[in-house]
């Protein structure tokens, strides 16, 4: 028994040593690609804020709904990455508020994290790609969900859709407690627990994530208008004030509205 314990301790020490070598070598590998370690770290933070919800911390994603980024050969095309981050795409929301430097940091992170090993992408290269893209520039500050971004009538429509498509699993109070006590609990869709997860993310991300994954037994089965109406209802249950205009089921416009826990 003592010998077995001793062997396990030796194995554990070897594992710690190997992991230590990995963490020492990783920054050096990043530097070899001409990537500033500070920008790489910034890219990791941006990834956690904007991408990890769908693509996972490990980059493995949830195929086919959300593709893996680790070991993805498509990341070899930096122009494609810049376009995708800025404009969005199938099931991916646009991120028009990210600067050229931030997109560069994020691109460098996903291209060189996990099993990936691609060259660096400079801020100047990103800026050159962005110059050829039109229609997504954010010229002013991002709006907040507290700015009256949906109408009362839209929230009422959303309540009716929610009761039919969502309420059985997420509960009448949107707290994740299903109406059927024999069903498993689900993520909350309003108030503090919901906002802790979605703080800082745009309504475009919520819109694309919701229609790609919900209802769980039949994703994408609602219309785009129904999805955005449900979001309006979720916001009003969370205490956000209504305004005069409806939210539009357009990822480009939804990308300019950010989730905040407080006004």
Task: Describe this structure as you would to a colleague.
- The protein is an all-alpha fold and 263 residues long.
- The chain has 2 domains: 26-131, Cytochrome Bc1 Complex, Chain D, domain 2; 143-258, Cytochrome Bc1 Complex, Chain D, domain 2.
- It is built from 12 helices and 2 strands; from the N terminus they run ααααααβααααααβ.
- Strands 1-2 form a two-stranded parallel ribbon.
- Mean pLDDT is 87; it is low at 1-26.
Q: What layout of secondary structure does this protein have?
A:
Blueprint: H1 2-32, H2 37-50, H3 52-55, H4 78-87, H5 100-112, H6 123-131, E1 143-144, H7 152-165, H8 167-170, H9 191-198, H10 203-213, H11 224-237, H12 251-254, E2 257-258
Parallel strand pairs: 1-2
Helix pairs in contact: 2-5, 5-6, 7-11, 10-11
End-to-end Cα distance? 61 Å
- % residues in beta strands: under 5%
Rg for CA atoms: 22 Å
| The first-level CATH class name of the largest domain | Mainly Alpha
Low-confidence segments: 1-26
Large-scale geometry: globular
Class based on secondary structure composition and strand pairing: mainly alpha
**How many extended strands?**
2
Overall mean confidence score, pLDDT: 87
Strand order, main sheet: write it out. 1-2
Which second-level CATH architecture of the largest domain applies?
A: Orthogonal Bundle
N-to-C series of helices and strands:
HHHHHHEHHHHHHE
Count the domains. Answer: 2
CATH superfamily of the largest domain: Cytochrome c-like domain
Named CATH topology of the largest domain: Cytochrome Bc1 Complex, Chain D, domain 2
Largest sheet: 2 strands, parallel
Enumerate how many helices there are, as a single number: 12
């Amino acid at each position: 028994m003592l010998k077995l314990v001793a062997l396990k301790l030796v194995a554990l020490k070897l594992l710690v040593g190997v992991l230590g070598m990995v963490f020492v070598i990783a920054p050096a590998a990043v530097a070899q690609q001409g990537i500033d370690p500070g920008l790489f770290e910034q890219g990791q933070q941006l990834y956690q804020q904007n991408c990890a919800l769908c693509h996972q911390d490990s980059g493995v994603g949830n195929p086919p709904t959300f593709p893996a980024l680790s070991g993805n050969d498509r990341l070899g095309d930096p122009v494609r990455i810049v376009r995708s981050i800025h404009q969005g795409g199938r099931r991916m929301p646009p991120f028009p508020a990210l600067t050229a430097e931030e997109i560069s940091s994020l691109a460098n992170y996903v291209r060189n994290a996990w099993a990936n090993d691609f060259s660096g992408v400079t801020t100047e290269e990103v800026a050159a790609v962005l110059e050829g893209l039109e229609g997504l520039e954010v010229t002013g500050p991002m709006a907040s969900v507290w700015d009256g971004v949906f109408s009362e009538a839209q929230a009422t429509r959303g309540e009716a859709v929610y009761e039919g498509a969502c309420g059985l699993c997420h509960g009448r109070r949107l707290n994740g407690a299903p109406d059927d006590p024999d069903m498993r609990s689900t993520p909350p869709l309003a108030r503090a627990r919901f906002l802790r997860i979605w703080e800082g993310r745009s309504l475009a991300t919520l819109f694309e994530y919701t229609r790609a994954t919900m209802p769980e037994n039949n994703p994408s089965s609602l219309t785009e208008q129904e999805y955005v109406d449900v979001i309006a209802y979720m916001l009003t249950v969370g205490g956000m004030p209504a305004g005069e205009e409806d939210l539009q089921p357009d990822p480009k416009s939804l990308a300019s509205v950010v989730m905040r826990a407080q006004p």
